[in-house]
Design brief:
175 residues; alpha+beta; 7 strands; elongated
């Protein structure tokens, strides 16, 4: 018996199994249903001793629709792109501009001061600058002192070392 091949039957069975196991959690993507969340594109780079984060947010009022916070070493940018109210007579055939809530979180290097984070918004790009902590130099030059052979006091430099060394060699010559 010949049977027509249905390539998505196995996929549909897998989706049903996921639903039985996890409920509807995460199956909206499998069903191609449009969620009311989205994730804006971002770039992260280091320059001038700071972490720079650029988030693509065109059509958003950053003062009204965006929240930026740093908590436990994580920078979180969240907000909402509001859905435009469109008159029915405009006759849309397709709408692809994402809207709804969004959230992006970025782990920051240890020691970052949250009060130093700066944000600007220009031409649809939110630019965050997170200064890196100033590293204290762990390299310290230590002067080597010497102990005077006669007094037992610590000296401060190679000259006394040379004198002690010459006394020791002259004592060896007299013995």
């Amino acid at each position: 018996m010949l049977r027509k091949w249905q390539p998505f039957d196995a996929f549909e069975r897998d989706v049903q199994e996921i639903r039985r196991t996890f409920g509807d959690f995460g199956t909206a993507l499998l069903n191609n249903q449009q969620e009311r969340t989205w994730a804006p594109a971002l770039d992260i780079f280091m320059r001038d001793n700071a972490v720079h984060v650029r988030v693509e947010l065109p059509g958003i009022d950053p003062n009204r629709d965006v929240d930026i916070e740093v908590s436990d070493g994580v920078l979180t940018v969240s907000g909402e792109r509001r859905h435009e109210q469109v008159a029915e007579e405009e006759g849309y055939w397709r709408r692809e501009i994402s809207h709804g809530t969004f959230q992006r979180s970025i782990a920051l290097p240890q020691g970052v001061d949250p009060s130093q984070v700066k944000a600007t918004y220009d031409a649809g790009i939110l630019h965050l600058v997170v200064p890196l902590p100033v590293k204290q130099s762990s390299k310290v030059r230590v002067e080597v002192g010497t102990v005077s052979a006669t007094s037992g006091e610590v000296g401060s430099g190679g000259r006394e070392f040379a004198e002690v060394g010459s006394r020791a060699s002259s004592q060896n010559q007299s013995n």
